[in-house]
Specification:
- It is a single chain.
- By secondary structure, the protein is mostly beta strands.
- The chain is 0% helix and 61% strand.
- It has no helices and six strands.
Length: 56
């Protein structure tokens, strides 16, 4: 699945990330982790910085 993830980066404002081919999303140690079907980490972001996650 493909997702749009918007993350707040302090003075830089909001940054939109397109994260493609996601097989699993987990939350651990205060962060979101996005993995592909090979269980490789393809994106991560701190829990408090994520504004929203939307499936494309």
């Amino acid at each position: 699945m493909d997702y749009e993830v918007v993350v707040a980066h302090g003075s830089e404002g909001l940054i939109t990330n397109d994260v493609n081919d996601v097989d699993e999303i987990t939350v651990e140690d205060g962060a979101y982790f996005f993995f592909d079907s090979d269980e490789d980490l393809i994106f991560s972001a701190p829990l408090g910085s994520v504004v929203y996650i939307q499936r494309n």
